[in-house]
Amino acid sequence: MTGGGFTFVHFEFLLLGALWTIGLSIIAFVGGGIAGGVVALARVSPAWPLRWLAIGWIQLVQGTPLLVVLFIAYFGLSIMGFELPPLVAASIALVVYVSAYLGEIWRGCIQAVPPTQWEAAECLALTRTQRMRLVILPQAVRIATPPTVGFMVQIVKNTSLVSIVGFVELVRAGQLINNSIFQPFLVYVLIAAIYFALCYPLSVWSRRLEQRLNFGTRASQA
Fold it and tell me: Which of 58, 139, 173, 190 has the CA that lies 20 to 30 A from 50?
């Protein structure tokens, strides 16, 4: 991959980087989603220590740039004696980042369930766990689907920052190619096109889900 102009080999390398971008996005979404679910439930918990712990976590992570979280996960942990591969460090940083944002998004969706639903569940003499599992969470999942899909776009785009720790995803692959052939305009236009191909379908899906939700809400109120 040295010298000359842009070739199909370079394009294949970009596509390989795109695959790593997708893989890292999936890791961040799944891991961050699990942690975000815990954060959201803690955020609405009747136990005030859990609520304040969740609030502190959200404020700390949302108030810290993702780039700093990446530096801490890669360089900070190595200083403490934990030598992590770039993929592991990047995954940890993204999971931490996603957990705070999804936790807050899902907290809002849980609290968006109409109070009458909470009251009806209480009238059925259900325990709090049963109320959440059988009544509240199924409705909250429906509300949360559009913003969650929309946030997936942010996850995909934010994976570009992990190139700073040496992980070869789409942006890092483009940097390596550009260092070889010195055609930055072509290389970065292709990178932008690949990101668009990854993110645009998610954006369209999110808008359609939101429209469907709004339609369903209006129909139920009619």
Answer: 139
Closest CA to 198 of 32, 74, 21, 8: 21
pLDDT tens digits, 3-49 = 578 888 999 999 999 999 999 999 999 999 999 999 999 999 989 99
Domains, in order of start, for the chain: 8-221 (1.10.3720.10)
Q: Rounded distance, CA 157 to CA 21, Å?
A: 9
CA distance 132 to 205: 27
Q: Where are the alpha helices (DSSP H) in 63-169?
A: 66-71, 77-79, 86-111, 115-123, 128-130, 137-158
Q: What is the pLDDT of residues 38-77, one digit of tens each?
A: 999 999 998 999 999 999 999 999 999 999 999 999 988 8
Does this model's pTM top 0.85? My answer is yes
Distance CA 102, CA 69 (A): 17
Task: Give me the pLDDT at residue 214, please.
Answer: 63
Q: 97, 61 in Cβ contact below 8 A? A: yes
Q: Closest by alpha carbon to 199, among 151, 165, 148?
A: 151
Q: b/e for 141-166, b at 16 or more Cβ within 10 A?
A: ebbbbbbbbbbbbbbbebbbbbbebe
Task: Give 130's contacts (C-beta < 8 A, 6+ positions apart).
Answer: 121
CA distance 139 to 161: 35
Residue 218 has pLDDT above 80, yes or no: no
- Cα-Cα-Cα-Cα torsion 70, 195, 214, 111, nearest 10 degrees, comes to -10
